[in-house]
Amino acid sequence: MIIDEKQRSAPSKRASMEEYLSPSVRAIKPSGIRRFFDLASGRKDIITLGVGEPDFVTPWHVREACVYALEMGKTQYTSNAGTPELREEIAYYLHNQFSVAYDPAKEVLVTVGGSEAIDLALRALIAPGDEILVPEPCYISYSPITSLSGGVPVGVETFAKDDFKLTAESLRAAITPKSKVLILCYPSNPTGGIMTAEDWLPIAKVVEEHDLIVISDEIYAELTYGTKHVSFAAMPGMKDRTILVSGFSKSFAMTGWRIGYACGHPELIAAMLKIHQYTVMCASNMAQVAALEALRNGMEEKNRMVESYNQRRRLVVKGFREIGLACHEPQGAFYAFPSIAGLGLTSEEFATGLLNEQKVAAVPGDVFGLGGEGHLRCSYATSVSQLTEAIERMGLYVRKLKGD
Amino acid sequence: MDGRKMQILELLKEDARRSADLIATMIDAPADEVKQAIAEMEQDHIIVKYATVVNWSKVEDEKVTALIEVQITPERGRGFEGIAERIYLYPEVKSVYLMSGAYDLLVEVQGKTLKDVASFVSNKLSPIDAVLSTKTFFILKKYKQDGIIFEEHEDDHRLLVSP
């Protein structure tokens, strides 16, 4: 059947379908990443530094565990909160790796990716008009999800000079009597910034003073270089104020499986579970089996992948600096966030030109909110040969802009 | 072996054409030290050769390869060494392993045709005095060799740009 879009009209007196849409959905802008994706897709010979996921396929033993689960007929719903085995293993893992202890029966919820956990946490917490503090530049979904729940996102700018760490000073400056929740994402997408225990202490103090709840998105926790990730929930007095969100996507190269989790105070988790059971019932059964296998037997492969990201991280940071782009040292995730300041272009113009002239795709920094303009997010989860080629092409582009 | 040399070996194993400078950047070590370490490993025959892995089945004059289980009587005083050497010095022999179990040496032999390999076994290998018996198995297809998958199906399926 061929549908003529021009012939289509709203099935009522309203001028367009859009008028049916909820005002909060209408108010949300489509993500800037999506816009850039449309620009890049369909083109040939593009080297992409725009990908926000590992370049490894999920390790075979994990995939095989899922295949076996299917053979064994594990095709049913699981308990709403996730299988008891997986929740137990997650609790054990978090205690073992990051020294935070959760009761698997009441304090762990398995979700459809970390994204669902963030959505659930915000929906469970926000009353209309509540202000949600979001350190930026940050992952693109916090503000829209906040708005959908009737909350008001309040950006807190972080800066390259501070290695994109959140400072107590700028956090304090953004707090009002309406502030309720602080969303943290360290190691950071898009900046690669991390927070150490010393960095967290003053933040924890502000959180305590202003009685905030924290949603700590620690999806990149395993990907730190040279220093071990410190969970905000492990800071003194913070565990009960923090909903720890993480998942398997980045650490175990399992993005498409959509398995994440949230851990926190039993009353908060119970509230999130209530939404979860009415909206998605449970995360995919066989994907939970795979996640269990990843936690039980996947550490060696994971370490190998982390080492490989680290090698490529050094390569791109050095490469960007050599072609004249200032680049702070990213210590986590798999992104470098070089500055393009002084070249006379906005991030958007720079990225568009780079794509058109040199066929290298990277995401303009402004899509990540305050402080992102003047930067470019470059994922180094791509092969060494592609990275080398991309840096060379970017060098040509930068030289041209500088008029050399 | 120190950790740095191990890292260098692993990066070279993935791609032998990587320069010392690139490796130095990737493992965060001074380029001179990496060059020095590589030179040392070449000298010590830890790095034996920078060879190319070829998928011969894609080349027109395809080669025939067989794995041969060989039972031998060890020599007094020298064990298997002398006989192994007599076997591996033939250019047709691509690899020789001393094995535990029902036979002693596993010998990989390559020839242009099936007949070549068969004649090598009957004219060169079997007549060696110490050789008690041989069993020849022809390789029909190589799926993976030395950690390298020949027909890689796991292409990059990722979206070009994603959050």
What's the number of domains of chain B?
2
What proportion strand of chain B?
15-25%
Write out the strand line-up for the largest beta sheet of chain B, numbering strands in chain order. 2-3-1-4
**DSSP, total strands of chain B:** 6
Overview of this protein structure:
- The complex is a heterodimer of chains A (404) and B (163).
- Chain A is an alpha/beta fold.
- Chain A is built from 13 helices and 12 strands.
- In chain A, the strands form 3 sheets. Chain A has a 7-stranded mixed β-sheet with strand order 2-8-7-6-5-3-4, sandwiched between helices. Chain A has a 3-stranded antiparallel β-sheet with strand order 9-12-11, covered by helices on one side.
- In chain A, helix 8 links the parallel strand 5 and strand 6.
- The termini of chain A are far apart.
- The model of chain A has no long low-confidence stretch (mean pLDDT 95).
- Chain B folds into 2 domains: 41 residues, Arc Repressor Mutant, subunit A (Orthogonal Bundle); 80 residues, 2-Layer Sandwich (Alpha-Beta Plaits), CATH 3.30.70.920.
- In chain B, the strands form 2 sheets. Chain B has a 4-stranded antiparallel β-sheet. A two-stranded antiparallel ribbon of chain B has the order 5-6.
- In chain B, strand 2 and strand 3 form a beta hairpin.
- In chain B, helix 2 packs across helix 3.
- The mean pLDDT of chain B is 92.
- The interface between A and B is medium-sized, with 28 and 16 residues.
Give the secondary structure arrangement, pairings included.
The complex is a heterodimer of chains A (404) and B (163).
Chain A: H1 23-27, H2 32-40, E1 47-48, H3 60-71, H4 84-98, E2 108-111, H5 113-125, E3 131-136, H6 142-148, E4 152-157, H7 168-174, E5 179-184, H8 197-209, E6 213-217, E7 242-247, E8 260-263, H9 266-279, H10 285-297, H11 299-322, E9 335-336, H12 347-358, E10 360-361, E11 363-364, E12 376-379, H13 384-402
Parallel strand pairs in A: 1-10, 3-4, 3-5, 5-6, 6-7
Antiparallel strand pairs in A: 2-8, 7-8, 9-12, 11-12
Helix pairs in contact in A: 3-10, 4-10, 5-9, 11-13, 12-13
Chain B: H1 3-14, H2 20-27, H3 31-43, E1 64-72, H4 81-88, E2 93-98, E3 105-111, H5 114-125, E4 131-138, E5 144-145, E6 148-149
Antiparallel strand pairs in B: 1-3, 1-4, 2-3, 5-6
Helix pairs in contact in B: 2-3
